[in-house]
Amino acid sequence: MSESSSSAESVNPFVSGLGKGREAFHAEVTEFALRSGERTPEDFLRHFSCRAIMRSLVARPVERARIVSQSTGVHEKVAHKMSPDASGEALQIALDEAVTTSAAIVRLFQPDDKQRYLDRHALWAFDIEGQPWKTTPAVKVAHDRAKAYVAYIIERALENLLVSHEEVVEAITVTKLAQCLPKDKLGAIIQAALKTSDKFTEEDLLGAVPPQSLVEHVALDYLWERVVTPLIAEAHDYAPKPVVLNAAKLTFGSTAMPASSGGAGSNDDSDWERRSLSPPIDAANDAGNDNGPPSEATVSEDEIVSEEEILESEMEDDSSPIGSQGVRKVAAQGDKKAKGR
After folding, report:
1. Does the first or last residue of the chain, that is N or C, have fewer Cβ atoms within 10 Å of its Cβ?
2. pLDDT computed for residue 247 by the predictor
3. Are 35 and 52 in contact (CB under 8 A)?
């Protein structure tokens, strides 16, 4: 985080031409970060190289030519014929040879174009790299700038309809406000409530204590973790949402199985083998039979047909209509029973 001595509150505000919404908010926040000194042009080119900037403008040859021409002195007609990679290389050479500066390049890259053409997640990572919520009052200049930055983010999120007043107050909680706000601020809130003929709403509350006042009395890390990260960054996909692993039990058939250390998608061979070798539960047992699984099928010795009986039956039934076909049938039954044993 740069230690600029200029006050962030005196920054000339930039209003995006993208209309109200997610894109305008991000363009305004990035530009405020650069103008206030929260982020520097050198930081920007560390995140987005000259070649990356030119490649992002692959569909904007006129814009590329303007940036290259004004940064390097190359004629605009010549710059217009240059490929994105050649344009990026020319910019980098000009920067290395001190023909131009990081500030000049970043200034020529229009604020709305930064948001339009750069990766949204990468741009947000640049915006918050300085971790303003971690500053302490011990370093007054940095802390004052961080307070102005956090207040601006919340203010522009409200203005661009990314978050409602109700959501902000609910996230902070009225209890926290009562603990942190000084008596004069609480008095102002009560006075505003008494003067309101209609219902006193969360919008009225934040009107009496706007974001600029909140950051003076509520800890920055609290505001960041309760408002900025969940309601703005994650809700509007500036930052990816954290992946939460489900520690609940997995179910396999009708038997609950605890999740293995590899998660729901684990390929634990031993665990899989153990489950696959478990004896199946039959329909009777599944329906509530408490007598346990049926015992293995048994065949008594009286049911087994011996070879002598088969031969004797063949001699007796030789003249019967079914003949040898009946003998084969009896033999087959005898084999089947023997196997069952």
Report:
1. C
2. 55
3. no
